[in-house]
Sequence to fold (114 residues):
Amino acid sequence: QVQLVESGGGLVQAGGSLRLSCVGSGIIYSIDAISWYRQEPGKQRELVATITSRGTNYADSVKGRFTIFRDGAKNTVYLQMNSLKPEDTSVYYCNAVRYGQFYWGQGTQVTVSS
Fold:
């Protein structure tokens, strides 16, 4: 089992920044990919950014503004979010894929005021 705990969400004004953290515990070796998703009420969950051993990928809507990176020593993956927009308001979830199994955190709310 893999356990994921997100933190770092909050309320920020448009143009501001936040850094989300996702701490992994449990059986975390051989994790293929770690991603950040976001979901607004009544909408589908949207992939925001992914990090693997081969590199990173981003949704077009966040390219140039968000950066995903990891600190292996702390078993933590971060999402640095700059130049935030009201449309970035959502619940952000951390996801890990290990041998085809998906694991999710509980989510952290990000609210961007205009």
In short: The two ends are 40 Å apart (CA to CA).
